[in-house]
C-alpha cells in the first residue's frame, strides 16, 4: 500500500515537472470570475480554476497522449455505448484510451482514476458513480496537471473539474413531466388521473434534477387535483431508486400496486429512465393492470421497440454519439493548446461554478420516432 502511495506521489511529481517543463497544463489557464458565466476572453484570473470556461490557451500535450475514461457502470445502454464509442473515437484521433467502468462502486472508481493519473493520462473523463465522492482524487489529478471533464453527470463539491458535457438534466425532467401529462390526455380520457412517481439513483446528481424538472410540470397539476398520487409519495427521497436498480424499482412498484391499487386503476407513472420504465410495466402487467402511460430516458433498444408498439408511452433521446463527439472535441482543443472552449452555461457544484457544455434532449413517442431516429440506422431498424 505504502509502495503504491509512493509510486503515485512520484508519478504525480513527475507529471507536474513534465508539465511545467513544457509550459502546458491547466495551471496556465486563466479563469473567469465565478459569478460571471461570460464567454469572453479576459486577462483577469479568477480565484478558482474550476470556474466557467472561457477561451484559454496553453501548450497542449502530445497528439498520442493517454486519455482516461471512468464510467460509473455499464448497466444502461448509454454507458455501454459510451465505452465503445470513446475507445473508437479516441483511437481514431490518435490518442491512447483507457476506458474503465466501476460497477456502481465508489471505491473502484476512485482506484481507477488514481491509476489513470499514474499512467500519465492528460485528460480524465468521468461519469461519477457518486457525484460528491471524488473530490480528493480529482484534486490530486488537478495537482498533477490533468484536465478533468465530467461526462453526462455533474461532479460535485470539488474544484478538480474543468467542465462537464451533458444533456440538460432539469430540461430532461421537464420533458418527462410534460410527456406524462400529454400521454395521459391522449390515452386515458378525462382526468383526474391516478399516478405514481419514480426517481433515479440518489448518488447520481442527474436524478434529483430529472425529478425537479418533472415536478415543475406535475406539481401544479397535483395541486389542482388533476393528478392524484395515490400513495402520497411525492418527495424525491421516497421515490428514488437506489443505484438505478431496475429490480428495486419493480419491487417498489409491486408494493405500491398491492398497497394502493387493489380497487383502482393506475393511469400513469413518471419513470426516470427506460430500464425502470420496463420494470414498472412488468409490475403493472403482473398486477393485472391495464398498460399505464410510462415515461423513460435513453432510447434503449428494448424501449424503442416498446414505444414503437405502443406499450411504453415515450422515452427521451440523449444520443451517446453526440455526447462522446462533444467530449472528444474538447479533448482535441486541450491537446492543441486551445484550452477549454467557451461556454456560457455554468452549474454550481457546491464549491465552484463549473462550465457546462449542454446538449438538448428530445422526447420520442410513437408519433415522432421515425423523425427522431432518421439518422440512427440501428434504431430505425427497430421500428418495424
Ligand atoms: C444518465 C442516464 C442513465 C442513468 C442510469 C444517468 O446519469 O443520464 O442516461 O439512464 O444515469 O445509468
Protein described:
This protein is α/β, with parallel strands linked by helices and 384 residues long. It has two domains: 32-161 and 320-359, Rossmann fold, CATH 3.40.50; 169-318 and 363-380, Rossmann fold, CATH 3.40.50.2300. It contains 13 helices and 13 strands. It has helices spanning 2-22, 77-92, 106-118, 135-143, 169-187, 206-223, 236-239, 246-260, 274-286, 301-309, 320-335, 369-372, 377-380, and strands at residues 66-71, 96-101, 123-126, 147-151, 163-167, 193-197, 227-229, 268-270, 293-294, 314-317, 345-348, 353-359, 362-365. The strands form three sheets. A seven-stranded mixed sheet has the order 2-1-3-4-5-12-11, with helices on both faces. Helix 2 runs parallel beside helix 11, helix 3 (106-118) runs parallel beside helix 4 and helix 8 (246-260) runs parallel beside helix 9 (274-286). The longest helix is centred in the N-terminal third of the chain and has 21 residues, at 2-22. The termini are far apart. Beta-D-glucopyranose is lined by residues 75-76, 78-79, 152-153, 200, 204, 206, 244, 273, 297-298.
CATH superfamily of the largest domain: Response regulator
- Number of helical runs? 13
Arithmetic mean pLDDT: 89
CATH topology of the largest domain: Rossmann fold
The rough form would be described as elongated
N-to-C CA distance: 56 Å
> Main β-sheet: number of strands, strand sense, barrel status?
7 strands, mixed
Strand tally is 13
Low-confidence stretches: 1-51
Q: Tell me, what is the CATH class of the largest domain?
A: Alpha Beta
Strand sequence of the main sheet, in spatial order? 2-1-3-4-5-12-11
Order of helices and strands: HEHEHEHEEHEHEHHEHEHEHEEEHH
Class computed from helices, strands and strand pairing: alpha/beta
User: Per DSSP, what share of the residues sits in E-state strands of 2 or more residues?
Assistant: 15-25%
Number of separate domains: 2
Amino acid at each position: 500500500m505504502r509502495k503504491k502511495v509512493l509510486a503515485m506521489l512520484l508519478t504525480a511529481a513527475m507529471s507536474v515537472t513534465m508539465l511545467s517543463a513544457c509550459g502546458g497544463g491547466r495551471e496556465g489557464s486563466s479563469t473567469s470570475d465565478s459569478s460571471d458565466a461570460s464567454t469572453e476572453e479576459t486577462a483577469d484570473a479568477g480565484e478558482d480554476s474550476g470556474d466557467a470556461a472561457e477561451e484559454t490557451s496553453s501548450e497542449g500535450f502530445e497528439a498520442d497522449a493517454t486519455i482516461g475514461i471512468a464510467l460509473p457502470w455499464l448497466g444502461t445502454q448509454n454507458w455501454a455505448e459510451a465505452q465503445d464509442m470513446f475507445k473508437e473515437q479516441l483511437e481514431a484521433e490518435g490518442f491512447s484510451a483507457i476506458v474503465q467502468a466501476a460497477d456502481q462502486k465508489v471505491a473502484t472508481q476512485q482506484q481507477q482514476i488514481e491509476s489513470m493519473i499514474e499512467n500519465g493520462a492528460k485528460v480524465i473523463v468521468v461519469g461519477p458513480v457518486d457525484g460528491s465522492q471524488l473530490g480528493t482524487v480529482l484534486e490530486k489529478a488537478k495537482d498533477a496537471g490533468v484536465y478533468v471533464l465530467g461526462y453526462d453527470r455533474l461532479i460535485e463539491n470539488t474544484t478538480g473539474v474543468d467542465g462537464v458535457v451533458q444533456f440538460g438534466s432539469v430540461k430532461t425532467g421537464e420533458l418527462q413531466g410534460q410527456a406524462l401529462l400529454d400521454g395521459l390526455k391522449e390515452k386515458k380520457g378525462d382526468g383526474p388521473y391516478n399516478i405514481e412517481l419514480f426517481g433515479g439513483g440518489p448518488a447520481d446528481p442527474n436524478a434529483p434534477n430529472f425529478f425537479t424538472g418533472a415536478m415543475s410540470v406535475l406539481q401544479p397539476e397535483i395541486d389542482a387535483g388533476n393528478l392524484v398520487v395515490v400513495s402520497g409519495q411525492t418527495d424525491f427521497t421516497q421515490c428514488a431508486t437506489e443505484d438505478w436498480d431496475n429490480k428495486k424499482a419493480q419491487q417498489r412498484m409491486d408494493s405500491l400496486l398491492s398497497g394502493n391499487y387493489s380497487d383502482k386503476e393506475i393511469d400513469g407513472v413518471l419513470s426516470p429512465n427506460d430500464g425502470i420504465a420496463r420494470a414498472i410495466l412488468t409490475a403493472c402487467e403482473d398486477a393485472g393492470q391495464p398498460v399505464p402511460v410510462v415515461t423513460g430516458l435513453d432510447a434503449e433498444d428494448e424501449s424503442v421497440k416498446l414505444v414503437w408498439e405502443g406499450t411504453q408511452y415515450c422515452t427521451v433521446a440523449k444520443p451517446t454519439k453526440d455526447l462522446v463527439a462533444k467530449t472528444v472535441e474538447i479533448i482535441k482543443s486541450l491537446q492543441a493548446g486551445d484550452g477549454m472552449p467557451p461556454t456560457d452555461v455554468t452549474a454550481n457544484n457546491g464549491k465552484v461554478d463549473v462550465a457546462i457544455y449542454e446538449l438538448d434532449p428530445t422526447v420520442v413517442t410513437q408519433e415522432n420516432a421515425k423523425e427522431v431516429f432518421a439518422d440512427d440506422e440501428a434504431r430505425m431498424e427497430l421500428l418495424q
